[in-house]
Specification:
By secondary structure, the protein is mainly beta. It is built from no helices and 15 strands. Strands 8-7-6-5-4-3-2-1-15-14-13-12-11-10-9 form a 15-stranded mixed sheet, with no helix packed on it. Strand 7 and strand 8 form a beta hairpin. It is globular, with a radius of gyration of 17 Å.
Length: 196
């Protein structure tokens, strides 16, 4: 359970639910937030996604997102014969290497990947992850010893609204991302509130 803040104000949530059955793991994701200025909603996102894994192999991902009434989607399937993913998304359709990871904040593996698939549109983004240092952060009455990373686009000439540029704090002891921050039309933070 992650809370989403913009400029210090709570504006929504990003929930992840995990279900295991034998060797299959299903992660469902719900996201909902809206930005208001003078009481009027200027930006709204509502979405749902589902990742399916067999052992550690991603076998499918599907999402539907409404972003200011614009429908975005991703349908990704693992092609066992070609050893590739096939993606049909609102921003990209085609094949992708198995080295890609879905760009969701539940998995610390995003910090080990060279590229990610946008969980909203299916676009593929190459990334560079740099270790910044060890820190202690407090959040919701808990103190965490974390590793701070910077995740950026490999190609920094991309338009700013398409570029990856995140600070990520990882609790290595639990292999969980505790906080993510970035600046785009304000200062945003995703903060881990609760986990079971």
């Amino acid at each position: 359970e992650m809370d989403i803040f913009r400029n210090g104000e709570l504006i929504g949530y990003n929930y992840y639910f995990f279900k295991r059955k034998g060797e299959e793991t299903i992660i469902t994701n719900q996201i909902n937030f809206s930005v208001k200025i003078l009481g009027a909603i200027i930006f709204r996102v509502e979405g749902y996604g589902e990742e399916k894994y067999l052992k550690d192999q991603l076998i499918s991902y599907e999402s539907k997102t409404l972003q200011n009434d614009n429908a975005k989607f991703v349908n990704l399937v693992f092609n066992k014969n070609k050893k590739k993913y096939y993606i049909k998304g609102s921003s990209y359709t085609g094949e992708a290497s198995l080295n890609n990871i879905i760009g969701n904040w539940w998995s610390h593996k995003i910090l080990q990947a060279d590229s990610q698939v946008s969980p909203i549109s299916g676009s593929i983004k190459e990334q560079v992850v740099t270790f910044i240092g060890k820190e202690t952060i407090e959040q919701y009455g808990q103190t965490y010893e974390v590793d701070h990373f910077k995740l950026i686009s490999k190609d920094m000439s991309l338009p700013k609204d398409k570029r990856l540029d995140f600070n990520i704090w990882l609790d290595k002891k639990n292999s969980m991302i505790i906080r993510v921050s970035y600046s785009r039309m304000g200062n945003w933070e995703y903060r881990l509130k609760n986990f079971e």
